[in-house]
Input
Amino acid sequence: MKTPLKLLLCHHGTGGALAAEALAHEFAVPGTTTLIHCLVVPELWAGMQGDDWLNNASTRDAFGNYVENMLESDAKREVAAVASRCAERGLACESVIRFGNPGETVVAIAGEVDADLVVIGSPRKKGEEGLRSRMELEKLVRGLKCPLLVAPHP
Amino acid sequence: MIYMKKSPALLIIGLAMLLWGWFNANGSLDGVQKSLQRSAYSDHMKVKEKFDAELRVATEIAAAESKPAPDMKMPKSQFDGAKAFQTQMCYIFGGIAGVLGLLIMVWTPKEGNFDYYLSIFPGMAYMLLIALLVRWGLDPLFANWGRDAQPTLGWNFATIFNLNYVVLGIVIGIVIVNVFRIPDWAANGVRTARFFLKTGVILLGALYSATELAQLGGISVAMIGVFVLGSIGVVLYMGRRMNTGNSMTAVLSAGVGVCGVSAAVAAAPVVNAKAAEIAYTIGTILVWGVGCMFLFPTIGHLLNMGPVQFGAWAGTGILNSAQVAGAALAFDPTGIETLKVAEIFNITRVLFLPIVVLWLATWYVKHEVGAEKVDLGKVLFAKFPVFVLGFILMFLLSTLGAFTPAGHYQGKYFSAEQIKEDKLLKVKETRAIEAELARLKEAVGAKQLQDHFKDKAINIGARHATPEDAYKGLAELIANKKVTTREQETLLAAVGKMKGLDAVAASAIDKASKAAYHNSKTIGAFRDWLAWLFSIGLIGLGMQITMAALKQAGGTPLIIGGVVGTAKAVGSLIVVLLFIKEFI
Output
């Protein structure tokens, strides 16, 4: 397989994502490959105020801002961590943070950055704790115009 | 930022409503309405048959007297009333939607308040349209199917599963958001669902008496106090035992203990809950809430619970406050008695919320190393539910007689003056009461009456009723052929329920009691509008329940939530069945 020039790594800090990052590093060549870190904040957060109706608007706003800030700082922390590990290997690294459906968003970003390889982690084992926001693989496979690499679960 | 989405949707909704109203008015939809509103149509046929017979007799008499045929108008039936209401509603709201829809199509939006407020109307009309389809279409349709299937199934599935406009509306809301997604043009307006529900609760304040509020308030404070504080304590204990983090335990205890998602939303920032913890908690509460909304009314019907009992149970046992209103209306979709009780419990819960958030904030600071202290006064002020003040204001205005004369608030009021001639007791009935009066004055009858009064503890004003009061009341009833005072009605209603009383006399007393009560048109209309507000609000809230959020239920929070939720539901059911009586 030829060396990817733009490798899109889907990474949001889970064990599976760390495995994907390790695999991406194997394929990336310093000086040739640009690793593009794609972090999707799943749209499930849009419905996270649920059917709350008793609170005042100020309480809902405070909750919304709190969650937004938390997600933003979590995302920035992940981006910084991935960038730092890339720097250690001499890899060029860029990042894209988006909000939306994970599968659809990855397809869209891959198109925008003209990625020639997409690397993702494999789904968590059943029963393992974590947010339930799995990437729809079929959507991804059908939508991508470049090869997709799935790292085995660690 | 421009909020308004250019779309013909509002115009189309408006035109659809106007068309429905117009077809209704000219009778083109009578075939559909007949099949949907069977009971109202049956009433219509009875009114028509009676009218046709009267017209025939009047025509024959006129012909015999060589006079022209009389010009008589058929009285309005329930069917006519229902059609007229639909037409009126469609013309008013269809007209408003049509005009605003046109404005959206021709106006070039500019940033500002006008753009923002205009952007909410399509979503509001969307919820209203669904509410109309559910209340006028699906609700009667399911009721008819339930009745039709009863002979085959042996039970009415629509009644047992509470497939009425409330449950169907919420389910449609959930289906729309998860299957079709809320259209962009409706997104802003759908968020006003909370406004409809809060307005409903505020207006509901006008329908309580001081006695009801005091009684229900007392019960709710006692029950909510025990179960809220109890479940918070249990969650805090279980969380520590199961090594769930402090912030997770705190946010879960608020959600499971007080008022579900609302409490989790209020407590999360105060206890620094992490993203995944919020997701787990809200997912767990939503799953439980939605499940309980379907389960509670069915159990309530199976246990033959009354409005006070069910309202108290739902108000205490259901984790999430939105589903409390849903379950209360699902249990009793035609009246609002259950909703009145349940909402008092909801209000009590939300009044507990600032205190609980303060408690958890203090608990969290004590247990979490490095946690920042919070400004307790600021938290208490920010979390105070302002809409409760509106509820209290409406209650005060209603008590002062601002909307209807005092005593009309329950929908029925006492008036001896308004008893119609045909509702007066007939000779046969007064004779039966005379005979019973004579019997009750004899030794055996007097003893029976005395025991009955003692057993039922019947009061007139501040004192216990005596057999002499009953003799006097019955004598006055015979003389006037109707009850003349509320005290007399209360007394005679109790006498009428005495065992061994002659059936004709008992039925006559019951008839006289009922004849003295009249429906308040103002309160009747008020109740109808309240039901519409809750219906629209609950459809909108259904649209906020996403499968993505529901799917987050799991792990330790689901175990703790499951244990405490079940204990609370079962415990409150036992307490309600043992101690709450239908006394309001």
